[in-house]
Amino acid sequence: EAAKKAAEEKAKKEKKAKKDKKKKKKKKKGPSTKVHRRTLTVENSNLFMEQPPMTKAQLKASKAKLDALDAADSARRRREAAQNDLETYILEMRSSITSEMEAEIEKVSTDEQREEAVNAANAAEEWLYDEGFGSDADTFISKKAELEGLAKPLIERALEFEARPKAVTKARNYVDDKKQLMDTWSATKPQVTEAERADVIKKLTDFETWLDEVTEKQEALAVHETPAFFSREIGPRLQSAKQLISRLNKRPKPTPPKEETEEEEKKEGEAEGDAKEEGSDAKEEAEGEAKEEGEAKEEAAADGEAKEEAAEAAAEGEEL
């Protein structure tokens, strides 16, 4: 037993020694670490950027360069457009005079006028493909205006040779028709006053006076001279009269007064008579009802007095 106890104690001691050893290992500290703190100052730097930002001066210079490129591109497009316009006009001008409208233009021009225009077109074409090829837009525009000054009058006179007489005839027919219409309106449109019709006639007459004057001037001119007027001027001259006629034509007629027939008057009289009879009957009926009510009240009052007298008599009898 002593040996057994000694063995148990030894085992306990060893177990305790192991626990103490573990506690010592846990309590063992590692190397200490010290932290040092200080404030750092940060400055922006573009040193390592691929593309540093531009300065104000660089931005201004870059914008000016872009504006210059845009202006140059716009000038190039304008120049090309003016060059194309001139080239197209040369071809159309020469074609009109020598082929497409040759017969019409010959009626209203001299040989010298046509020759001058064709020679100018040929010279402009030669200049365009030679010394003028690199010219600016304004030069091309000016050259086209010179050609228009020669060709446009020829083409306009050719077109007006037939258009002007047709327009004059149409305008005179319109004036005659509207003057007759004013006579018709005097009977059919009472809503249009005589003064308003006179105003229309005056506008038409003023137009006729102008048309007579310019037509007379035109007849005195040679066909190859500048016309006294163009057909496109006629429409605007008539516009004032047309607007006035249109406005008066839309004015509605006055509403005529209502006329009653004998039958309608008779019906109205009968209706009034019936209404009077109905009113008289109603009045008599109301008076009769009032009278009956009065008589009933008088009878009720008499009954009341009789009852009172009977009651008094009975009371006197009892006292006796």
TrEMBL record:
Residues 1-62, 241-320 are annotated as: Disordered. SUPFAM superfamilies: Heat shock protein 70kD (HSP70), C-terminal subdomain. Residues 1-12, 256-310 have a biased composition (Basic and acidic residues). InterPro entries: HSP70_C_sf, Hsp_70_fam. Residues 13-39 have a biased composition (Basic residues). GO terms for cellular component: endoplasmic reticulum chaperone complex. Keywords: ATP-binding, Chaperone, Nucleotide-binding. One of its GO terms (biological process) is endoplasmic reticulum unfolded protein response. GO terms for molecular function: ATP binding; ATP-dependent protein folding chaperone. The keyword Calcium does not apply. It comes from the Eukaryota. PANTHER family: HSC70CB, ISOFORM G-RELATED, HYPOXIA UP-REGULATED PROTEIN 1. This is Uncharacterized protein. The lineage of its organism: Eukaryota, Sar, Stramenopiles, Ochrophyta, Pinguiophyceae.
